[in-house]
Specification:
alpha+beta, about 30% helix, 3 strands, about 70 residues, rod-shaped, 1 helix
């Protein structure tokens, strides 16, 4: 009987560790809007939010202006 309780306990602990080990936690609140501090590079560029780097000028073909430094 003790062995069954021990096996079940180890199984439940392992299951709980596996269930929370793959969780990715990120902020649920959007980043605040930041105004550009220099003018638009050309008419095709738009001020957009990058998921990792924040706000910047984006072009549909050329990507992000000045890259990410």
């Amino acid at each position: 009987m003790k062995r069954i309780i021990t096996v079940v306990g180890v199984f439940l602990i392992g299951l709980s560790v596996l269930s929370i080990s793959g969780c990715a936690v990120d902020s649920v609140y959007p980043r605040p809007y930041v105004a550009p501090n220099y003018s638009m590079p050309s008419p095709a560029w738009s001020w957009r939010m990058h998921p990792r780097e924040g706000w910047g000028w984006s072009h549909p073909d050329r990507g992000w202006h000045r890259g990410w430094r």
